[in-house]
Amino acid sequence: MQRIYQHLLAAALLAAPMATFAQKADATNGWAAQPYKADGKLDEWKNPLPHYNGDTRLFYDIANDGTNLYIAIASRDEISQYRIINAGLHITINTSGKTKNGPGITFPNIDQDALYDYRHTPQLNYTPSPAEKSAKQKLLFLHTGDLLVNGLKDIKESAIPLNNNYGITAGISNDNTGMLTMEITIPLARLDIPAENADSVLAFNFKINKIDKKEAEKLKAEADKAAQSGGGGGGTPGPGSAYFNYVLGYENGFWTRQGLAKKI
């Protein structure tokens, strides 16, 4: 009798449909009626971006069409900008909608020699205008290097060129009002969303990375020394100041779940 029961149970399990799981979305992506260009200018997006996280001081939005996932990020906060420029923003996308590891991308990845000059910016005796800050950042962005990636389908490399054959694109800019803006495009095929995720809810983690803490403390000490020897200015502390360099040794981030949009 027990053997018959076991056979019946096994047959029932085999006949059962594939289990699906549901995750509740915080929001639904916008539908991209036409492909977005990842140039960092946010021309295709709502202004301002509709979602905001107070811990990281980031505005963000996510959209998709039938082919690509589009991500937009913006920040007016100078400390968040400085941290992103120096250490990058890492975005994890869990394709099961869970707050766990998944495919990811880090952007920007700026040349270390260019960053050295940026980190050692002499403090000015005045507070520069947003246009001045924007111009300086745009020159720095010319030194943006490879995209750092992990877990994306059929990509074995951990670093790929900005101009690549995988369909992944990214751009960074700063408008003349002092807003740092970024865009990233990832083909949905690279995410390999499991069939069990019937609602297509993805979990996104936005994390501002950190640099080595000892390096951050070293930069802070150098800035303190420069200020004490007369190299510091009387303006508002900014890039290159002791505090700005100190916070490079810390990271923070947040999770959000968003469902893929469907064409109406």
Describe, in short, the structure shown.
Keywords: Signal. The protein is an alpha+beta fold and 264 residues long.
Model description:
Keywords: Signal. This protein has 264 residues and is an alpha+beta fold. It is built from 7 helices and 13 strands. It has helices at residues 2-15, 78-87, 112-119, 130-141, 188-191, 213-231, 242-246; strands at 27-28, 30-31, 51-53, 58-64, 68-75, 89-94, 104-107, 147-150, 159-160, 169-174, 180-187, 201-208, 252-259. It has a 7-stranded mixed beta sheet. Strands 2, 3, 4, 5, 10 and 11 form a 6-stranded mixed beta sheet that branches. The longest helix is centred in the last third of the chain and has 19 residues, at 213-231. It is elongated. The model is unreliable at 4-20 (pLDDT under 50).
Helical residue percent band: 25-40%
Distance between the termini: 54 Å
| Elements, N to C (H/E) | HEEEEEHEEHHEEEEHEHHE
What topology, given as strand order, has the largest sheet?
Answer: 1-13-12-6-7-8-9
Q: Ranges with pLDDT <50 over ≥5 residues?
A: 4-20
Quaternary structure:
single chain
CATH class of the domain at 20-110 and 141-210 and 251-259: Mainly Beta
Query: How many E-type strands?
Result: 13
% residues in beta strands? 25-35%
Main beta-sheet annotation: 7 strands, mixed
Rg, rounded, reads: 22 Å
Helices and strands: which structural class?
alpha+beta
Tally of DSSP helical segments:
7
Mean pLDDT: 89
CATH second-level architecture of the domain at 20-110 and 141-210 and 251-259: Sandwich
Shape: elongated
CATH topology of the domain at 20-110 and 141-210 and 251-259: Immunoglobulin-like
Keywords: Signal
Signal peptide: 1-22
